[in-house]
Amino acid sequence: MANAVSGMAVHDDCKLKFLELKAKRTYRFIVFKIEEKQKQVVVEKVGEPTQSYEDFTASLPADECRYAVYDFDFVTEENCQKSRIFFIACYLFFAEVA
Does the keyword Oxidoreductase apply (predicted)? Predict the structure, then answer.
């Protein structure tokens, strides 16, 4: 288990799943969450390679913060197949209602 300066640990499975996504394209996305009681980041959900961006956004909770990586496939203007991995932080902002 890796440990950061912030005191929040990162479960080994987080790194392993990310390396599988990056090298083997085993997943379309990985959603991470912070386990407050254990003070660590853990893998909450992985998306199969056939799942879409809509599947990814539907897997995010509406009322909790999450972090994720998403493997985005696209075709360039030169008709070349490309892929980019994005890191996404999902935060909640609460507005005071008057």
Answer: no
Residue 53 CA, distance from chain mean position: 12
Confidence at residue 62, expressed as pLDDT on a 0 to 100 scale:
83
Three-state DSSP at 23 gives: helix
> Which residue shows structure tokens 């990586």?
69
Q: Is 24 helix (H, G, I), strand (E, B) or coil?
A: helix
Contact 13, 21 (CB under 8 A): no
Write the pLDDT tens digit of every residue in 53-62.
999 999 998 8
Structure tokens belonging to residue 77: 């203007």
**Could you tell me how far CA 85 lies from the centroid of its own chain?**
10
| C-beta separation of 29 from 47 below 8 A | yes
Q: Which domains does the chain show, CATH number per domain?
A: 28-90 (3.40.20.10)
